[in-house]
Backbone:
């Protein structure tokens, strides 16, 4: 059994005067509802080009409503650039230059693909890792 | 301007060579080098039913911005979870748009545009605790 851990530390000494923030959490990522570690993952990097359209980073080709986790990093160093992140037709947020995100992704239905889009212009390099409970490779064409 | 740093470390032996992802970011306003300087506060909520509940009301936040949402299931039971949804009312399996299931001990940190509520629903009537905090790119003052 594989072991995958995800740790976060969030800190600020000046967001709230006199109340330093120090949030720390570690999770061991397990298969859906089990105490068995995840054993499937994809990892990669790419370049997005602003083109007025959204690209699917990953299709929801696993079992619906399962435990999966997504890490995505915007590698741009230009503060004007951001990646629009969404699921299927729903935009959820904007990932700024140098930012990362980490979310659970349950592949709520077969159309719940992860979408990313470069804005407002140019190209943006990105890195990602997706840890999955199940996955079915696409059929050959 | 405040400085908020967030660091992630992911380690795994899924593959035959070790995976080690380490990245630190400083949370900034949309298309700006200025740090986020507002929050709706760190909150903890106890859940004892499966009734969906809004944890982030989007009308507290400026629309179309680069907010960050941190959520952690503070319970330890890996068989129980919260649905987390970007949705106005409910969080269920196929609700548009359920993001994922946050099992005991799991956490998430994601960008959030502030245009729609964030809703959660526990899968159980057993007690579960949720911690959450929005690092805001604009908080809208409540009307009197």
Residues:
């Amino acid at each position: 059994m594989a072991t995958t851990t995800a740790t976060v530390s969030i800190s600020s000494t000046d967001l709230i005067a006199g109340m330093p923030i120090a949030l720390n959490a570690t999770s061991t990522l397990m298969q859906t509802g089990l105490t068995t570690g995840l054993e499937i993952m994809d990892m990669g990097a790419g370049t997005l080009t602003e083109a007025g359209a959204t690209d699917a980073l990953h299709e929801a080709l696993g079992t619906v409503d399962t435990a999966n986790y997504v890490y995505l990093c915007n590698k741009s160093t230009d503060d004007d650039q951001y990646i629009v992140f969404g699921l299927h037709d729903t935009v959820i947020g904007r990932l700024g230059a140098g930012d990362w995100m980490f979310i659970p992704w349950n592949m709520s239905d077969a159309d719940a693909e992860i979408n990313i889009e470069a804005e407002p212009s140019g190209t943006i390099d990105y890195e990602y890792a997706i840890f999955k409970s199940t996955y079915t490779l696409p059929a050959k064409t | 301007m405040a400085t908020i740093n967030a660091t992630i470390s992911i380690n795994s032996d899924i593959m035959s060579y070790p995976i080690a992802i380490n990245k630190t970011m400083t949370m900034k306003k949309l298309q700006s080098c200025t740090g986020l300087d507002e929050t709706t506060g760190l909150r903890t909520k106890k859940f004892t039913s499966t009734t969906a509940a809004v944890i982030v009301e989007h009308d507290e936040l400026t629309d179309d911005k680069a907010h960050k949402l941190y959520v952690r299931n503070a319970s330890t039971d890996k068989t129980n979870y919260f649905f987390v949804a970007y949705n106005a009312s409910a969080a269920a399996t196929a609700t548009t748009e359920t993001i994922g299931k946050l099992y005991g001990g799991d956490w998430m940190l994601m960008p959030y545009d502030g245009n729609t509520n964030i809703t959660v629903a526990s899968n159980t009537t057993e007690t579960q605790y949720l911690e959450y905090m929005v690092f805001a790119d604009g908080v809208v003052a409540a009307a009197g």
Notes: Strands of chain B lie at 5-12, 19-26, 38-47, 53-56, 67-73, 81-86, 98-103, 107-112, 118-122, 128-136.
